[in-house]
Amino acid sequence: MAPPPPSAANVSQPVIDSLSARPLPDTDQPDTNQPDTVTQPLAVVSEKLPWRHTFISLKVPNFRIFAIGHFIAVIAIWMQRIAQDWMVLQLSGSVTAVGITVALQFMPSLFLGPWGGMIADRFAKRKILIICQSAAAVLAALLAVLSLSGRVEVWHVYVIALALGFVTVLDQPARQVFVNELVGPKYLRNAISVNSTTFQLGGLIGPALAGVLLTAVGAGWAFAANAVACCSTVAMLLILRKDQLHLSQPTPRKKGMLREGLNYALSKPTIYWPWLMAGFVAVFAMSLPVLLAAFADHVYDAGAGGYGLLNAMVALGALMGAVASTRRRQLRLRSVVTSAGLYGLMLCVSSLMPSMVWFSVTMVLAGFWCLMFLTAANQMVQTSSNMSIRGRVMSLYLVVLIGGQAIGGPMMGWLAEHFGPHLAVLISGGVPAIAAAVVAVVLARKSSLHLKVDLRDRRRVLRIVQETQPA
Question: Where in the sequence does UniProt note compositional bias of the Low complexity kind (predicted)?
Answer without folding.
Answer: 26-38
